[in-house]
Amino acid sequence: MFGNEFYVDPSRCIGCQSCLKACEECDTHRGISMINFDFVDRRESIATAAYVCWHCDEPTCAQVCPADAIKKYEDGVVGSSLKPRCIGCSNCVLACPFGIPKLVPQYEQMMKCDMCYDRTSVGKKPMCATVCPSQALTYVTPETIAETRREKPVNTFWFGNQKITTKVYMMAPADAGEIAIDVADYTWEGENGLVPQAF
Amino acid sequence: MGWFRKPSSTPLWRDEFSVHTADERYVNRRQFTKFLTLTSFGMLVGNAWILAKSAIRRAPAYPRMTVAVAGEIAVGSVKIFAYPTPDDPCILVRTGDDSYVAYSQKCTHLSCAVYYEKEQNRLECPCHQGFFSITDGAVLQGPPQRALPRVALERKNNQLNAIRMEGGGA
User: Fold this and answer.
1) Distance set, CA B130 to CA A132, B80, B127, B135 (Å)
2) Which residues of A touch B22 (CB under 8 A)?
3) Domains of chain A, with CATH numbers?
4) pTM, whole model, 2 decimals?
5) Is the dihedral of CA B50, B54, B57, B63 positive or negative?
6) What is the DSSP secondary structure assignment for residue B2, as one 8-state letter?
7) Is B30 helix (H, G, I), strand (E, B) or coil?
8) Which of B55, B73, B97 is a domain's end point?
9) Number of domains into which chain B is organized
10) Which of A126, A151, A155, B107 is deepest in the core (most CB within 10 A)?
11) pLDDT 10s digits, B117-162
12) Most distant CA atoms of chain A, gap in Å
């Protein structure tokens, strides 16, 4: 099972929220899901998007951490905050361009997806990828993805001038290059109060 | 601390607290040994320097300077002058008809100016209430730990001359 990579395809998400429930089953954070689950445009559409931490190559969350509590492990996984170190300052919550880290008030600690490090480090799939019925979240080899999907895996994102490469891949239309996101587009609230969403 | 690590463009803190666990290394054995060796070598050099300096140390030469003429100030009053350089304020006190004493005006605590307190016949530093004896400049009370440097005076004819500083390492 080594050699697998994580692929996120929001276009396949059916909104069943199985990933949330599977994530909550974990003993290290029972009852708290580390999946980021969005309704894309709830008034106009039933589309949903579930995604995990992107595990950036140069993780902004870890770079802004004043307590050295977030580490990137040798296999590329960016861990959740280390309990003895995290001071609950929310720097990472504010800094992450993807909005992944969440401050969990009852633990006074930031918690985020660590790609089920206890499972993936011994060759198992992350919980969410094992339960996703439509394989919107999937953990397979690049060869499998190339054989079974029309879309192209992309792991380079632009946020304004900040280029981010990640360990987790986004399935993008075959003609898409790098995914460019102008942050200003998504902070603008229109006259009717609708907030345009990223996906 | 550039001597103890390989040349690198990243700042030391980013090197030591890398976000990548693979790069996480605090002080390794070789760095620590280098540190110990260089530090003890530095201490050796420092001690040798102090030894050499004390061996060739000479008594500083002081100029002879006329401070006042006899009878210029009344008994119990003072005159401020500068000795041995214009940046070293000193205070001359006429304690009796024929007796004069002079001290550096810099308090040995934090270099505030000391003043003559006539009622108690002692020198006072108003900053932190340090008091010095008028007879020998010794500390009477307060935070100073060392006595005031004394200006040695010499009487020649009608003139009072400062000839050197005594004590205080001035």
Assistant:
1) 80, 19, 8, 16
2) 74
3) 5-58+115-187 (3.30.70.20)
4) 0.57
5) positive
6) G
7) helix
8) B55
9) 2
10) A126
11) 988 889 999 999 999 999 988 999 999 999 999 999 988 888 889 9
12) 51
- Boundaries of domain holding B121: 65-166
Q: What are phi and psi of B24, to 5 degrees?
A: -75, 105
Name which of A79, A97, A101 is nearest A88 in CA terms.
Answer: A101
Cβ atoms within 10 Å, residue B142: 16
Q: What is the DSSP letter of A125?
A: P
Question: Phi and psi (nearest 5°) for A120?
Answer: -65, -30
- A131-181 pLDDT per residue, tens: 999 999 999 999 999 999 999 999 999 888 888 999 999 999 888 777 887
DSSP string, A91-108: HHHHH-TT---EEEGGGT
- Which DSSP state fits A41? S
CA distance B74 to B70: 10
The CA distance from A13 to A38, in Å, is 10
Query: Would strands B130-133 and B115-117 be described as parallel, antiparallel, or unpaired?
Result: unpaired
Q: What ipTM goes with this model?
A: 0.71
User: Residue B21: which of A58, A63, A71 has the nearest Cβ?
Assistant: A71
Residue B60: inside a domain: no
DSSP H or E run through A110: strand A109-111
Verify whether the Cβ–Cβ distance B19 to A73 is below 8 Å.
no
Cross-chain Cβ contact B19/A72 below 8 Å:
yes
